[in-house]
Amino acid sequence: MCEMTDDYRSSGTPQGPSSRSTTPKTVMYNGSAMHSYRVKVFAKTSDARSYLWGGAGVVRNFEVNAELLLLLRVDEEGETVTIGVDYFGGIIGKDHKLKQLGVLRRGESFAVELADVKGVYAQCESDSSLHTYVNCTVVAIQKR
User: Fold this and answer.
1) Helix, strand, or coil (residue 120)
2) The whole model's pTM is what?
C-alpha cells in the first residue's frame, strides 16, 4: 500500500544561506518512507555551505531502525555544484572531517548513504547569479 501525504510543517530552520521548500512531500510504502524537498544553493562567492542534510553544528548522531539514503538531483536550470559530506568526529569550526564527493552538473543525480553523517553539503562551482536548486529525497528503508 502506498500513501502520499503533504507535510506543510517547516522541514526545519535552514542552516546557512540555503532555503528549503515549504511543502515537502512524504511517501510511505511497505514500512519504508521517502521524504522530498529542494534546497537553493548560492553562488561560490558565499563562504557558507548549503546543507542538503544536517549541518556543521550538529553534534550528536542518532540511531534509527532503517537505512537512510539521500538521493540528489541538480535542477535542469542550475549550475554545476560540488557535493561533499561532513562526518561525525571533527571539531566544530576546525576539522569537520569533510570529504568532497565530486561535482554534479545540470540534471545529474547521486546517492549518499547517511550512516554517521552530520551533513551533506553543496557549493556552486561558479560565481553566477543563476538560481541553482538541488532536489533531495531521503529514503528510509526499514531494516529487517
Assistant:
1) strand
2) 0.73
